[in-house]
Design goal:
alpha+beta; Immunoglobulin-like; 3 domains; eleven-stranded mixed beta sheet; 24 strands; elongated
Length: about 400
């Protein structure tokens, strides 16, 4: 009994040690990398300098050039966080090497851009003179003339164009809209859609009805209509877009055509209203490309108007550096388990003739150590070291268990 208890206690101790050893094996994780030699600037959406002051809802381009450190690994990321007064226009763009190979992907959201590096970077160095550009929208007014961007925990201040920060929107000439006006832009939260807008003078009107036609193969996005009326003076209208003052939502009836190429909208105008603002979304046609012209027109009781926009890519990334060839991973030989394994005693006393001699068969375990497919030198060392150690431990455990069994029979 003591031999059996001793053997079991030893077995439990060895298994506990083996599990703890394997759990302690370090695991590699992706890292957030800090870019080097960073330069930031803002331009208009075509990459040209902006000379005047920005207004709320204006769009601009953030351009960055930088170097990436050596010893990168797949899954590493670098992040650009935007100031509160500027909002990112949704986009996703590949990061291209000087030879046009994809080395990662950058995804732009409202608050930040996150660039994730792929397998291409592993074992390569020389990621110098890389660039990244994206589209931002002035989301609110500010008197600050410098705004902070955060990259890898480091804050960089960028000068806004002109003087006075970001100003208010509106006509700015002290007059209310006349007739019906139409404009549009790629939707900030999803640039595969276009947001079309109608601004119309409704002074003295009690209702309206109009039909909007989407050109260029676009289709209406269901349940996307919003409608507001505004009341106020001409001077107040100049800053109404920035302050939001005076806008009241109203209910309208919106009926799209069966193929989604048109939408009819009608509703009542509350007494005392001066301006009606309608907006809705349309899906861009399949296969739309940079430079394609998208059109939209409206007719009805408020008048006629049309608008067109040029479809644009909202972000891009790449590099001009000279990359080194990938390094060949160094794979070390697999550790060989210790050959010093206790051998059970071969001399077994002959039991008394009155006790049947038991037949003791100790199965010799077959231990197969699988060779992992190496990915990185660290992975290879971690995997083979753990497997070699476990194999040796299992062999020793089985021998100890066999010895305990033999000892138990001896005592009988």
């Amino acid at each position: 009994m003591r031999a059996r208890l001793g053997g079991l206690m030893l077995l439990v101790s060895l298994v506990t040690w083996a599990v703890a050893s394997v759990a302690a094996t370090p695991v590699a994780h992706a890292a957030t990398v800090a870019v080097e030699n960073l330069r930031l600037s803002v331009t208009d959406t075509d990459g040209n300098p902006i000379t005047g002051q920005l207004s709320q809802d204006d769009r601009l381009r953030l351009q960055a050039t930088f170097d990436l450190p050596d010893d990168l690994a797949a899954g590493d990321v670098y992040v650009i966080e935007f100031p509160e007064v500027l909002q990112g226009v949704s986009a996703s763009t590949p990061i291209l090497s000087p030879d046009g190979e994809e080395i990662g992907v950058c995804a732009v959201s409202a608050a930040s851009a996150t660039c994730t590096l792929g397998d291409f970077v592993t074992g390569r160095d020389g990621f110098k003179d890389f660039y990244f550009w994206l589209t931002l929208a002035a989301s609110t007014t500010t008197t600050q003339e410098q705004v902070p961007f955060t990259i890898g925990g480091e804050i960089r201040y960028v000068d806004l164009p002109g003087t006075g920060g970001i100003g208010v929107t509106g006509d700015g000439d002290g007059s209310l809209p006349e007739g019906v006006q139409k404009d549009g832009w790629q939707y900030s939260a999803d640039t595969s859609q276009v947001q079309w807008r109608i601004i119309a003078d409704v002074t003295g009107r009690s209702d309206f009805a109009l039909t909007d036609t989407f050109g260029s193969g676009m289709t209406y996005t269901a349940d996307s209509v919003t409608a507001y009326v505004w009341s106020g003076t001409a001077d107040e209208w100049a800053s109404a877009g920035s302050s939001g003052a005076g806008f009241e939502p109203i209910e309208v009836e919106a009926t799209p055509s069966s193929d989604g190429s048109e939408i009819s909208i009608s509703g009542s105008i509350p007494s005392g209203s001066n301006v009606l603002v309608l907006s809705y979304l349309a899906e861009t046609p399949p296969g739309v490309q940079e430079g394609d012209v998208l059109t939209n027109s409206v007719t009805g009781t408020l008048g006629e108007a049309s608008a067109r926009i040029t479809y644009s890519v909202m972000a891009g990334a790449g590099g001009n550096g000279v990359l080194t060839p990938p390094r060949t991973p160094v794979v070390q030989d697999e550790p060989v388990p210790s050959e010093a394994v206790p051998t059970p005693s071969e001399t077994v006393p002959t039991p008394s003739e009155t006790v049947a001699t038991p037949t003791v068969t100790v199965a010799t375990p077959s231990v197969t150590v699988a060779t992992p497919t190496p990915t990185t030198p660290g992975d290879v060392l971690a995997d083979t070291g753990a497997q070699g150690g476990i194999a040796a431990i299992l062999a020793a455990l089985l021998l100890v268990a066999g010895t305990a069994t033999v000892a138990l029979h001896r005592r009988r």
